[in-house]
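Quarterly update, task 2.4: uridine 5'-triphosphate-bound model.
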Amino acid sequence: MIRKCLFPAAGYGTRFLPATKAMPKEMLPVLTKPLIQYGVEEAMEAGCEVMAVITGRGKRAITDHFDISYELEHQIKDTSKEKMLDGIRNIIKNCTFTYTRQNEMKGLGDAIYKGNVLVGFENPFAVVLADDLCVNPDGDGVLKQMVDLYAKYKCCIVATMEVPDEDVHKYGIIEGNEIEDGVFMVSNMIEKPDVGEAPTNQAVIGRYILTPDIFDMIKKTKPGKNGELQITDALCDQAKKGMVIAYKFKGKRFDCGSVDGFVEATNYFYNLEQEAK
Ligand code: UTP
């Protein structure tokens, strides 16, 4: 039902300078796989087959990663290293990649708006922020859980998790009524509130299902926190009409946009690999 997934990947990734000076943050590897590949695999598992990437200047490595490298293929053909390309070959074979650029970094809301030329105005679509790396060792991936929920509620869905008081200022925070276990009808959303201002500790992470009317809402939204067009503000207008669900996802999320979260994810996947040996 949800065929397209948008990957806003135009940010500067300043927290990883100098690594991100000439290389996109989304290409930083956790073990041997770039962050964005984890996101694409999660989207594939959720049933998406069109991956729509919002890029910017200096992001060509993403386009090249999701394309065939004939030289490399030739070089490693029939060697033991060939199997290391199985995952990416499978992605290239089964998905279509489309790209557009966000010329100015005017915020996540603006990046998503730019995606309208890729995802269209007819159908709901998923959004994955690849620097939020999500895993669920006990079952379906986070996006698949959300796609299943969409089948029931048919409205915008944001994935949320509890964060400590001292972290609420880093996230969009929601307020709402629990309508079933872990599912909330959102009544209000605030982008990066101060501790005293936050109505709850439920923070939105980088997974969304959006209905195409969001593009109209973004168009009407004025720049918010930090002068950026915030997707939280556009969604808040939808929420006031009872059209946004917050879902406390099952699994774990690593904030790979921060050095601490990135190291945590690396250790997690390294330990998994060691245990499997
Ligand atoms: P971040 O807030 O993590 O910003 O964006 P950033 O620029 O990537 O990183 P720092 O803070 O400078 O280290 C969250 C997500 O939204 C995308 C980013 O690429 C990232 O996936 N984004 C943000 C855009 O695509 N465009 C924007 O204008 C802002």
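Highlight for this quarter: The first strand starts at residue 4 and ends at 8.
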